[in-house]
């Protein structure tokens, strides 16, 4: 491609509203342009990277036995009404009406569409297992689109769905696609972890997220410093056996704690460690109030709370609700004497002896509080977030946190959709059974941004060779110089004949501009035709190491082939 013929609008200054590296660089280097909040155009260079990532995805998905199809983005509301999700999703699901006033959703995901398709076309167990995938635009009206392609409202997803007549068959395909995902992200050059995740609204039990390690990631990963264990912090179970101290139980006592509200205030005012404090928080679990107790130095994990109650929604009661329900302000709450809401506690509470808790009276706390003696707990469970330094759930090593960008998510769905939509097959005995399903997503445009986030330096992007928009950047210093321009054009043709993808900077621009743009765009190898053109010598520069070498025309093809092999 000749730069004089394409569109690569590089910028000199950093765009104001871009606050992460990948967003800034993709804009500066002319890969994307924003149309509206969370909605982008992929300019020629951005489109070429997308294509490279998509071809890696296709190779690995096809290799795992999946078959590509393409479903519509416009989805009849009836399908989402059948699955029930028409009613459970809010404004994030974009909806519209056609000219006959019929309702549609703009596809945020395709479980309903694919299940209705397979329901109609697959009747016998002999046709299973079947794994179908597509690479297509998705629409989700995010409340706060941000970080460029990392959280957009229109984005490109590879979504796959598998259909099975047995759990074993699902397990087999799940493992195959798990491996395919690892191959995909490795081939994109990404440093990623597959982490145990929470299936959220999707139901089903096993699910893993593929996380690219990055300090701008929105997810927190808890991983072991010695074993392979890694989990989304929402999911990581706490593997702790709390030792109960053998100190004698003291008499319960109510003490004045004027204006001491937070655990920190109370524990320092009473000179008691936060580990002996009981933090009481009122939650609304679906439509009932629950008082949740955790140790003063722990935090309630609302996902674990939600899973404990198998609830649809869990949120903390606001101060007004708290005052109404418990007739006491936040900051003095405690379990003692509570009759009108049920109490659940994290397992750490059981080991507290002579602890401290709110007295359900403003400015008062109890000391020498002993669970079971002074208050009843309906259920003890693992309800807290894991912390750095905790023992790893697999018992090996200690937990360390890292931030991650979710680029993939795989689920064992079970029959949640096939039952809701009556997608059945006839088994060996001719009996109708609901299909067992899996679903598997990769954020393709998000993966592009994650690579840009991981591969850059002070001069711009540094694309891994396998997904760079071009292999080589050919630059003629001075296109007005007859020798340079004819040598460069001759090389351009020769390189293409040797099947290299070449971006030829044939513009009438000053050398400084050409070099700055070349570093910004970040192709793996740059070939400069300059003052030694008359001797048939070019300069070759490796983008990610900065290494420079002078090469004669005769040696150039072999040198480039060799260099590309090692990139
Ligand atoms: C919606 C909206 C947002 C959503 C969903 C539905 C996330 C939704 C989860 C998934 C599950 C899997 C197939 C590929 C892999 C992921 N956000 N999810 O279902 F209507 Cl507005 O998308 N889908």
The low-pLDDT segments are: none
Output the CATH topology of the largest domain.
Answer: BirA Bifunctional Protein, domain 2
Name every ligand kind in the structure.
ligand 9G3
Distance between the termini: 22 Å
Mean pLDDT across the residues is 95
Largest sheet: 9 strands, mixed
Q: Work out the number of β strands.
A: 31
Backbone CA Rg: 30 Å
Overall, the morphology is globular
Secondary-structure-derived class: alpha+beta
Q: What's the CATH superfamily of the largest domain, by name? A: Bira Bifunctional Protein, Domain 2
The CATH class of the largest domain is identified as Alpha Beta
Describe the protein in words.
The longest helix has 21 residues, at 167-187. It is built from 14 helices and 31 strands. 27% of the residues lie in helices and 29% in strands. It has three domains: 15-236 and 401-452, Bira Bifunctional Protein, Domain 2 (BirA Bifunctional Protein, domain 2), CATH 3.30.930.10; 253-381, YbaK protein (Alpha-Beta Complex), CATH 3.90.960.10; 470-565, 3-Layer(aba) Sandwich (Rossmann fold). The strands form eight sheets. Strands 3, 7, 8, 9, 10, 11, 12, 21 and 24 form a nine-stranded mixed sheet that branches. With 567 residues, it is an alpha+beta fold. It is globular and about 95 Å long. The chain binds ligand 9G3. Ligand 9G3 binds next to strand 24.
């Amino acid at each position: 491609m000749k730069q004089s013929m394409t569109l690569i609008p590089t910028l000199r200054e950093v765009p104001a509203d871009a606050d992460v590296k990948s967003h800034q660089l993709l804009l500066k280097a002319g890969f994307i342009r924003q149309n509206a909040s969370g909605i982008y155009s992929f300019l020629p260079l951005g489109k070429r990277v997308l294509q490279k990532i998509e071809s890696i995805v296709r190779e690995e998905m096809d290799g795992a036995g999946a078959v590509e199809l393409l479903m519509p983005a416009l989805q009849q509301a009836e399908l989402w009404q059948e699955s029930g999700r028409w009613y459970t999703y809010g404004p994030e699901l974009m909806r519209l009406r056609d000219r006959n006033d019929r309702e549609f959703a703009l596809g945020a995901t395709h479980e309903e569409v694919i299940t209705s398709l397979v329901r109609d076309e697959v009747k016998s167990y002999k046709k299973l297992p079947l794994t179908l995938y597509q690479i297509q635009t998705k629409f989700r009206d995010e409340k706060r689109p941000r970080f460029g392609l990392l959280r957009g409202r229109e984005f490109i997803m590879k979504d796959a769905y598998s259909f099975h007549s047995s759990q074993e068959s699902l397990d087999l395909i799940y493992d195959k696609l798990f491996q395919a995902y690892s191959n995909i992200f490795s081939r994109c050059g990404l440093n990623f972890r597959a982490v145990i995740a929470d299936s959220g609204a999707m139901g089903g039990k096993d699910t893993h997220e593929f996380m690219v390690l990055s300090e701008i990631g929105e997810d927190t990963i808890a991983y072991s410093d010695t074993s392979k264990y890694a989990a989304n912090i929402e999911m990581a179970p706490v593997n702790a056996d709390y030792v109960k101290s053998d100190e004698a139980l003291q008499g319960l006592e109510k003490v004045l704690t004027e204006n001491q509200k937070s655990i920190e205030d109370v524990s320092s005012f009473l000179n008691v460690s936060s580990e002996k404090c009981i933090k009481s928080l009122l939650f609304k679990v679906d439509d009932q109030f629950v008082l949740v107790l955790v140790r003063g130095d722990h935090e309630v994990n609302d996902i674990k709370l939600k899973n404990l109650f198998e609830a649809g929604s869990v949120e903390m009661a606001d101060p007004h609700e708290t005052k109404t329900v418990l007739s006491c302000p936040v900051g003095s709450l405690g379990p003692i004497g509570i009759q009108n809401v049920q109490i659940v506690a994290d397992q750490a509470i059981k080991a507290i002896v002579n602890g401290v808790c709110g007295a359900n009276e403003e400015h008062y706390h109890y000391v020498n509080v002993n669970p079971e003696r002074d208050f009843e707990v309906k259920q003890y469970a693992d309800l807290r977030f894991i912390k750095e330094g905790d023992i790893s759930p697999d018992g090996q090593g200690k937990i360390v946190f890292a931030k991650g960008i979710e680029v993939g998510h795989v689920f064992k769905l079970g029959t949640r959709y096939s039952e809701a939509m009556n997608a059945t097959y006839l088994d060996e005995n001719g009996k109708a059974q609901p299909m067992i399903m899996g679903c598997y997503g990769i954020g393709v445009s998000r993966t592009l941004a994650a690579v840009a986030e991981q591969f850059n330096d002070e001069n711009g992007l540094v694309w891994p060779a396998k997904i760079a928009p071009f292999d080589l950047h050919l630059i003629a210093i001075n296109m007005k110089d007859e020798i340079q321009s004819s040598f460069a054009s001759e090389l351009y043709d020769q390189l293409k004949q040797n099947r290299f993808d070449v971006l030829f900077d044939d513009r009438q621009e000053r050398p400084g501009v050409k070099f700055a743009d070349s570093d910004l765009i970040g192709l793996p190898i740059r070939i400069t035709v300059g003052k030694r053109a008359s001797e048939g010598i070019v300069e070759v520069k490796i983008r990610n190491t900065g290494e420079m070498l002078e090469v004669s025309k005769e040696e150039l093809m072999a040198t480039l082939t060799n260099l590309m092999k090692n990139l």
